[in-house]
Amino acid sequence: MPNGEIFPACFLNPEGNPISTPICVVLENLKWEKGRRCRCTIQVVLDEVSEEGLFCPGNRLYLYHNRKK
After folding, report:
1. DSSP three-state, residue 2
2. How far apart, in whole angstroms, are the C-alpha atoms of residue 24 and residue 63?
3. Would the pTM count as exceeding 0.90?
4. Is residue 63 part of a domain?
């Protein structure tokens, strides 16, 4: 996964319910840890999307790549 690639994404709350509309995000400064975990900077591509309430403990960000979550 290269730095700066754009992905469709969706945020879910701890109960697994969507809390955002489908959005596009860019991942930068990727650092992989223990196989499938990574730390990175997430930037929302469109300014019209409110980030309020998305980046909270317990919420999950799902990226979609090659039609897979």
Report:
1. coil
2. 9
3. no
4. no
Angle at 69 between CA 16 and CA 47, to 5 degrees: 80
pLDDT tens digit sequence for 10-66? 889 999 999 888 888 888 888 888 777 778 888 877 667 677 888 889 999 888 876
Radius of gyration of the chain (CA): 12
| Half-sphere exposure of residue 48: CA atoms within 13 angstroms, side-chain side | 4
Residues in the chain: 69
Domain that holds residue 2: 1-48
Please give the structure tokens belonging to residue 48: 């019209």
Q: Structurally, how many domains does the chain consist of? A: 1
Residue 67 lies in a domain: no
